[in-house]
Fold each of these.
Amino acid sequence: MKKVAFISHGHPELSKGGAEVASWNLYTLLKHKGFDCLYIARTDAKSHGGSTFSSRGNEVLLHTAMTEWFTLSSSHLKPLFVDLAELLREYSPDVVHIHHYAHMGIELFAAIRQALPDTKIVFTLHEFMAMCMHNGQMVKRETLKLCYKATANDCHQCFPSNSPGDFLLRKQYLLDQFSHVDEFISPSHFLAKRYVDWGLDVEKMHVIENVLPPRSAIEPRQISENGKRGKFAFFGQINPYKGLDILLHAITLLPPDIRAQIHLDVHGANLDKQPAEFRERVESLLAQTKDCVDIRGPYEAEQLPSRIAECDWVVIPSIWWENSPVVIQEAMQFGRPLIGSNIGGMKEKIENKAGLTFEARSAASLAAALVKATDPDVFEHWQEKLAINHNAENEHIALLESLFSDISATGS
Amino acid sequence: MKKVKSLVKKILGRPERSPLTVDTVSQTTGGYCVIGWYFTDGVKSVAIEDENGNAVDVKRSPIPRDDVKAATGRGGTGFQLLCNTDKELSQLKLVAHLSNGRQEKRSLALQGQDPGLESETGNVASNIVTQTGVKGSCEYAIVSPNFIFVSGWLTDGQNATDWSLVDGRGFVVADVEDITRYHRRDVVETYGESDMFKHTGFALLMKVDTRVGKNSNLTLCATLNENSIKLPIEHVYAASDDPMTNAMRLLNNWQSHVPKQLSKASVFGPMLREIYPGDKTASVTRIDFGQAPECPRASMIIPLYGRYDFLRYQLSYFGRRPQYQDIEILYVIDDPKIAGNALKLAREMEYVSQQPFSLLQLSHNVGFGKANNIGAEHATADTLLLVNSDILPKSDDWLDKMLESVSREDTGIVGARLLFEDDTLQHDGMAPMTITEYPGLLFNDHPRKGWMKSLSPFPAEEAECELLTAACWAVKKTDFNAVGGFDSAYVLGDFEDSDLCLKLLEQGKKNVIRRDAELYHLERQSQNLVSPGRWKHNITILNAVLFNERWKDTLQSMHEERVK
């Protein structure tokens, strides 16, 4: 039986980022399809007796940390080059499927390559971290303007304490480490193109959407004969990049008769942890819109179906590019059309496929989209058009099968 | 004793830490970037001011510092101050406006450098008034086996003569060799303008008759209008202690940009070479990583000074590519301050990179030229590749091309086309140039620096080129050794590369540049002529003076050829 080892920078039961969830879903799917899989998740927690490994259920926990965020490096190399290497050699996978290097160190790739010279290394890209020091956002640090290309000099403008030369060195180092990867997976064409333009080998790049656990669509909300489709929902972190302030501002621009017929539920948290300026702006907008906006707070995965069932539309007004936000896939799976910014991954996944787009960062443009969306015919048009792409599962399996046959062909 | 100390600590309490911390100061293209934090309850705001106390325009960005609270229990505010200014860092101060209404001022220094020594001058106190009403003071002397340098001021109208130095018993220990007089603004500011207060400053180079040690009781004597003047020397420093501080003492007041003062380089040069003696050896500790190649094609020598993180990038690069496996790589750690960190990073890179390499740790800083000479002594290959730490190859074929060229019998040094990170020219061959402020001297120019390659008049191929930067050289070890390697009379790394280029030309070799071999050279701004601290700049000037003395005619004809 072919073996696949997964490496994730967190266990989804402990840390619910998009990459952790995506890797977990693929792992669960492959196990279900009969593959022999091992899931290794990095953790912050202290281990028993200082060991590099512990477990959580059937999954391995890897105890290590990243130490240098400029080069995304770790100086804790024994856990990777000795301990993880030994464990992987013992398990002897045909493919190692890596879903992040953050918190472990970019040297992870070299460690696996040295331990398993003939094993295929697959790496899924989830954001622009290697390209952009600004948390992988590709948004300028001070002005929050969109960034179209990471050049050494522009990066220096965002991070003046590092010289342009430092950014050239950083990029070269990361490309060196990525050279150990056999195949890259990007869940969106947008992200794939950015990374190919930046320096990754186009021949190694595969665009395959993240897989979701099997769940069926939820019937549209019941409305009265002349009712409107005015129940909107926002899912996600409340931070400057997710654009909740744009959405609230758009609501203040709605004509009174429309405003009386709409409602927004905000399913998210962490406003209290945001910079003061942003926090004050959102608080002020919430005060102006309290007639039609509720803050519902964070939610567990199990609560998602019931929360999403309450709404007509899911709004994703991010001011950064996004990659393939899981909320888009989930909304589509549950049968809810979307309203999203017309940039990056949102444009790719929504435009002409799953709902309405608006001029990114423009409250006026979003307000117009909200007005349009309340029309039941518009809702119906997009709701009927939604179709979750089940090919993603097959494409992931097909890629693995092709790697297995490569390995057999080379006789390893 | 320990108990007493801890008791005292208990009673007095620990000294309260400053509410202000500076994490990093770095140079940007237009000025400086200062990053740090302060206790939110202790400081109201921070600003930067210049030497006249005027606020400098800064762009402020807050940085969340939850870690301060976590570590100290007190809330912290992080800041990044970005200032665009032409001023030198030594002219700027970070000012914190404290909650108690007071101010705290900080000198700023780039990472890895000590804040510049405050000028020895500044607090003017006349410790003698002679019978004739002449005021003066002799602030310090630097003593070495051959020379003594003495600095001070005297309101003698520049008429004093017969300078000599006597010890505590009244015996003359040194006689004047050379002297320069200069304007002391601080004296005028203290005593007012008058003819007697013009050019009160003096710098004296004295030839030693009887050797004296530091802390000796020395008095400077002179004659003025048949009266004897005696100036006791306040501080006596030994040249062999802490070279950098002594170099600052020697050179921070020399106004080399004034032509009359430039012509007095002879007062300072001999003492600088006492502070950095050419024959001073460093002990070397060699540590090997990985299986070194048995018969390396070439030995690559890379000095490390200040920044050690370059080692990560280079070893990552070399390790990824097969053509470096038979290259011997020798890092010369010419900076004891970074030795520990460099060793730690080297151990990490031994895991990450498959490239064998060695560290040569030097017991003290010897400067670029000597560090390379030491590397060459350890090199086992017949061909040397001298490579700066901030070099990263752009094309993989540079190595084969340069080794091919250097293998020819008549070829001396082979240089490369070096690029900035934006692919513009950093080095395409050097040429002599004049600088208005320093008439009579020729410096090394990098013509067409910052140009796009496409604008260069030279095709990407091999060409003869007399002067090449040692940031990236291939040279036969026999040729390098035949001229004695880099000349250590050039202090701390300037001109020794062009000096060696000219020596090989003199030996009948030709130097070539491979403009088809491209490497990035992420030249550090601190290496430029305009660098923080006048002393460092003045070292460059003294090296230039020596270089010009040696090669005046050759340089002149090369320069005439260039401007023709």
Amino acid sequence: MASVPETEIRRTPLYDVHVSLGARMVPFAGYAMPVQYPAGIIAEHNATRSAAGLFDVSHMGQAILRGDDPAASFERLVPGDITGLTTGRMRYTLLLNDAGGIRDDLMVTRIEEGGVPALFLVVNAGCKDADFAHIAALLADEAELQILNDSALLALQGPMAEAVLATLAPECRDLVFMQGAEMTLDGAAAYVTRSGYTGEDGFEISVANEAVAGLAQTLLAHDGVEPVGLGARDSLRLEAGLCLYGHDIDETTSPIEAGLAWAVGKRRRESADFPGAETILQQLNEGPTRKRVGIRPDGRAPVREGAVIRDAEDAEIGIVTSGGFGPTLGGPVAMGYVNAACAASGTALKIELRGRSVPATVADLPFVPANYKRAR
Amino acid sequence: MANRKYSQDHEWVEVEGETGMIGISDYAQEQLGDVVFVELPDVGKMLDRGDEAAVVESVKAAAEVYAPVGGEVIEVNDALNGDPSLVNTDAFGDGWFAKLRLTDPADLDELMDEAAYKTYCEGLD
């Protein structure tokens, strides 16, 4: 009998939908994922900014953490204020290593199951096996982690997202950015959060694997909702100034260097009881030696991850961690790390590109203003 | 186009007299996706067959374009600086890259004709 190769590529429950839509499928984090549909990355990007885009993010890891006090338990692994979350509130936080480096970034929502609080976690696809093993091992005595292998995840993003989802669940209008609630969509039980990875208003929808294809087709049947692949997901998040794990942040970058100090809760700074707290709080007080910044290269040529950044005197001061073309800006955009002395907005940089040097400028993040629906 | 010939790297050349016009094929532009920038060679540059002649940047990545034939660059398509998407919309026409004065017409013998290239591409999918 033939053995199944260990590296066999996995499919999300939407694989057949992607293929029927004409997607170009590529391997990503062990899954066959759509990088683009026939419309192309720029059209998909623009559809999300102007109307609505539907993304399959079922490759991401979903889990529920239960225990006597799951929020208090989880705070041992992250710097965010988790115990302060009320039911239906969501927070961006970071799994840290003992040196204060970032193991992963993730979304945490406090949910309630029959009156009992629990945490709903969504982590990056490429990190999920390691994340879940880490969480389960470190919290083995106090909490239980249930990995939701039977759930898919959709993201509906863009200024039309609310109007479209409201045709299935009018109560989605009551959510504001970083809130979640249970809803019934097209007859299927779903957990919906008002969140995303594009800088636009929108929702992420966790729903059973067997219901997701039908729900996706229902959403795509609306005028103005276009399927969007990983290519535009990347250009959208880059314009929104959002970090991509494994590129802009990793085990060697701290939250302070990454410009994510806001994810280190005020109470947590005082209690200093998260992994790497000593290093992180020192950087917070004294300032980090390098910082993540937005970069606008002059001209039209994109600069890519790995490109060396120099100052006006040609001294090497950093490296590009994400770079590409921003369709909304109509030009190249990048993010990278530079020496703290060169991190002020407006600082002139030079970036190496194919043996020459492209002038560039440090720019404020996000490049494109966020369009979230905030609480009034 | 009867006198258009193709390389295995999906570049094409159309020869008229001593001049060869080069570009990338429809198959190549489709694989690259939306082209956002093309770095063209300098006029006067001497290229051997297989030398890097240009770089095409799509939203996602950069790809090298190799000279399908050797020659001196005598003209480049400046229209691509203003509208790189011409490579997507008209790969064999307005999306051309450069014109070369051919060094050696025998270079053409190494390339595929239309029918052979079509078969070659079908074998890649």
Amino acid sequence: MEPCILNINELSKSYGRIKAVDKLSLEIHKGEVFALLGPNGSGKTTTLGIVLGAIDLDGGSYQWFDEEFNSTTLRRIGSILEVPLFYPFMSATDNLKLIADIKRISYDGIDEILTQVGLYQRRGSAFRTFSLGMKQRLAVGAALIGNPEVLILDEPTNGLDPQGIAEIRTLIKSIAEMGKTIILASHLLDEVQKICSHVAVLDHGKCLFTGRVDNMIGKTRMVEIAADDMNALLLELTAYEGVMNPFLIDGYIKAELINGTTPADLNNYLFGKGLIINHLTIEKISLEKYFLNILADNV
Amino acid sequence: MKYLLRIEWRKHAKNPIFWAVIILYIISVVTELFGAEAFINRITSNASKNSPIPIPNLSIYTFPDIWHSLTYLAGFLKPLLAFAVILFVTNEFSYKTIRQHIINGLSREEVFTTKLIFIVMLSFVSAVAVSLSVLILGLFHTTGLQFGMITQKSFFIGAYFLEILCVAGFAMLLSIILKRSGLTIVVFSVYFFIAEPVLGFELNEDVARYLPLKTFGRMIDVPNTALMKLFGVNFREYIDLMDVFLSLLYLSIFLVITYLIIKKRDT
């Protein structure tokens, strides 16, 4: 296992009666492109705000790089939260120089970063003259200053047009290929599926699922099954540990096959219970369906 | 420290509005100080016409009393300086750059220190503008000048610096609490121009004299012009150390509360 970059343990934060983050535990390892996936208001930004020291926590703990949090910790992390935050009257270069000052590093890499995010030509223009896409790219550039080990990007494609989205995604992928750990908050499944290696699904501040993205897409299978006595079938499937969440739809019962269970196991089990099945198909479900299923179960 | 100074400097040096505000402020101070004598003389000569005894036209620009009269006059422009503080401190909240600074690795102590540096620098600039005005006007208007006369009452500039620093500290505290420039300017103005004067009028004098703005303003008492002397009023020509102590106490309280809010509040 790669070394642990961020370890979150039972983190909690409430705003009045609303639990923004509810006993959240996560582990993120070196080299992962880790997505915090969830609808708006699921606690993604609050979680990132807490681990970056911008928001005070109510309970739990977190640890970066297996060390005590201190003033130098944040200089090893490049981050943007929600929207790009810069001084509107300052040029791209000056805004990045200010961040370099805060991180106590030289300005040497700034031109290179501006080139990388495609803003070198506009480096002297005031930030307020930038389009939203350019602002987002400058924000990613700002996160790259000081060659940090970890990048935190919160909704980096929010509000962008398709071309802008494609540019940012290509940029993130190229950064990931450099071997950096990336933590990305997003409410777009498609985005997570395309860029990320690992995912934690959040809803109402709780972690509903965490694991590898490809495992989730590849190995999660739905079975569609039918027998003469559908009621008995539903009952037996509900009792069976090899599947999850069976439900009746369009004259079939659908259920998730739990990893390790094969169709043969299922058939065998039902046969043992005296049920003869007359239909059995397996479908791989997309992350989107999976995500919606997870959320639907928790309503 | 030098590092924090550079961060704060970069933010303001590149801001055209910052320069506009600073230059306007300096122009206001210089205009007020250079125009004051003509204004006072006109009042004096008007009064002189109706007076049975002639009132001498005594210059307010002669060393060493010029230190007293000009620091007193410049004190009237405190609200302008306070507005500048409010404008640039609340900017950090409206641009949300304070949050970005913290997640970039600036500690909350350092955020506080950069804001403290900012108000000290502004107050310092103001004190320098006043000092230069004093030197220029004093050198041209004092007859029989000796070096000792120039420095004799220069301690007034120290009191002036402390006075405006205290007001700037108060403006910074309000800015940190309220976060919005418009709202903060309104609240500051209501307190400065209405609430404290009314309180000062309503309250018993023994209590009213400890109100913050009254305390800061009392450090430099009204200068004694020829006109004042005629009326037989004689104001204090020294600085009461008790006032200095109380002002420093107020300033410390403002700074401690500002620090605690920056330290504790989610950004």
Amino acid sequence: MAQVTFEEISASDFFYRNRDIAGFTNPTRAIFAAVRELVENSLDAAESLKIPPEIYVRLSFEGEASKETQIYKLRVEDNGIGVPPRHIPSAFGQVLFGSKYKLKQQRGTFGLGGKMAILYGQITTHQPATIISSTGMSKIYMYKLLIDIQRNRPIILDRKVFLNKEGWRGTIVEFSLEGDYLRAMPKILEYFKQTAMVNPYANLTFVDPKGRLYKFIRATTVMPDPPKETLPHPYGVDVELLQRLIQITPYKNMLEFLKNHFHRVGEITATKFLEFSGISPSKNPKRLSHEEIVRLMHMLKKFKEFLPPDASCLSPLGEELLKTGVLKELKPEFVAVHQRKPATYAGHPFIVEVAIAYGGEIPQRGGFLIYRFANRIPLLYDEASDVSVKVINAMNWRRYKVSPDMPIAIVVHICSTKVPYKTVGKEFIADRPEVRREIANGLREVARQIQRFLTRREHVDRERKRLGVFSKYLPKIAHFSAKLAGKEKPPDIEKLLRSVKRFGAEGV
Amino acid sequence: MEPKEYRSSIMERRKEVLASLGNLGAKIYEQIDRGFFPSIEMPSRSTENIYYDPKFRQYILGDKRVKRSARNIRHLKPFAQLVWTALFSYELTSQRKTSTLRDVYYSAQAYEMTFKDQQESNNIITDLETVLGFSREDFNIFPEERSAVFGDLTISYTVPGYEGKTLNLTSHPDGVMIGPALTSADFVETSADKVIAIEKGGLFTRFIEENVHKKFNAILVLTAGQAPRATRHFIGRLNRELRLPVYVFTDGDPWGMHIAMVIISGSANAAHLRDLTTPDAKWSGVWATDIVNYKLPTDPLDEIDMKRLYELQKDPRYKEDPLWQREIKTFMKIKRKAEQEAFSRYGLTYIVDEYLPAKLEETK
């Protein structure tokens, strides 16, 4: 009989073995994912202080790794909040350690991406990562780290402390990794462009391995309000969460328990719910049996009178900023933006923001240009599977005088405490009916706006053409007839020209 | 448009044309000057407004009129083109220069008056004809087509540089081209007592060689297929001014028959014009009955020929004289056609010696 061995694997070991799910599938995707994860961490780090992000990314060529891949050194600098020195080793050398387990909208979900990138670099090049960070206090700390993959622990190879004379604040991450930049280049550049679009208050600088400089300069310093942390909404809880809450709660009865641990549940709602579910308000939550907890979870989902979650935990871009971003990066002739009211799916609040842009520098290419974003992250892969694309394709655009052969770009941004991604790679958004409905309604609104614009433009165009015909031919008729009649001067046609100008055509 | 009395003097007609063009300009000028959008009215040339008039023995336009207004955006460009064409015609006529239809098309570009194509400029010229009741030849605009005349007729030129010069139309054995100079020439004298119009160049040359003009005292006109307007106008003048009877010889097929008919009764396309027809002209052959009587070598009528016959059978112009219906029926019966040259089977001079005198007598 064969001996079965059970071994516990560490979190970093797990991701090492399953790096596909985090987006590090191949050398092309890996280099793209590494850039992206670090840039997103940097954006979050600056935004949490509400300071306009200043991010510098450099990829430099280190040497050939194989026929198809090369070794690159990736360096990302930001002006973000900085990492307190005692957290640096864990924050960058221990998977699933981080600040992102609370309920508020952030780019990263598990605090996983940045470390995955470093882990991937270490696996492929066996080089340590260098982290330099300061919170703006008197010291700057530098660490050289390796991750002990089996034990999920950072190994500190070197540590230096510098005096922070200039009061610098921010984080620098530098490590080597294997990748295929040439293949990844279009996506990386597209990533920067789209990131600049939904973060119009950020300065992004990218120097690629050939030394080419790409700069995306902010168009505003206005930033959206940072999201607030919230309690879980009753519709979104599961048994696991209930048990955890029961373990930590200081409250001795159900009424207080519900009031204090759930989002938008007050005295009245809690009382009504307890009546509805037949649970005594004075029951001690810690005395609930497992069956009762399961039943509680079901009742929470069934009860219709909970107020929907409010969106204070969300940080949508807002119509003004979205417009600024689209104008800045796409330079269209016209843009319409719309932000939907907050909605929920499975107890998770979300907000959909959409924009539609027409003409200008938007290319005409026989189909809409679609830009998808989730929590201000551009989604660049698997477009066809995305719910937005499904909604866009299902819409009757002709109703709005819009056709795919027009130069049109559509932007869909979903922000949520829990974006319904289909994969850990965060590439596309699952088709949830609530989400689908919000996107559709948002698109209808901007479609109506572009319809008004197109109708007006068509009208102005027609009017301009009409007046063009009059002002081309009337003078000729006047001139020819005067010559024919033997007059010296053509008759005055100003009166006639004035009379053909229709009301509302002043701007023509 | 009112039918105009014919005036023999070419110069007088030119004055009339110039006055008419000038009036058009003055009318438009005045409308604009008074703050109105200028407009022009003219008889409609649409098919439902074209009628056959047994009195004039030609197609005429009915009472329906159309208005071209510069207020209407769709009329604006053609309106401007019309006024330009009037001005261009005025300059041509007053400077006594001529122009071809093709020239008109290109000249417009110098005035930034573009015509989409030749057809568009031709249409505008037809509009001007309709508005003023003069034909384009009166405006010194001629088509490219050319035909010829030969015979004892002395003409006197009115074109610049040749005013008063005379020419006898027997002076050149190939015939004299019926161009602008000849069209605008006055007739001085003739010894001829008839006009023979011939469809084909070969036979025209044969007739000259065989001295048909002398033997039959005739002026010979080559129509070169369907007679151009200038030629029809010229034949009409020979008929009216010199009171010469006109005999038309064509191929023995529906197309030849129709060449004769257009000389006699005009075309629907020229329903807005007078003076192009010669109602008393006779079609002398080759008839379908000639094919039978003279046992001419023939070709079968094809499908298109037969279709044409059915069309002509219903045409009001062909209902005037029983001859037409009889010949159409004969064509349909024998289903054969013959060319003028078919007489050569009896020798080269047979047509002149035998056929021609017989037919002239028959259609007198």
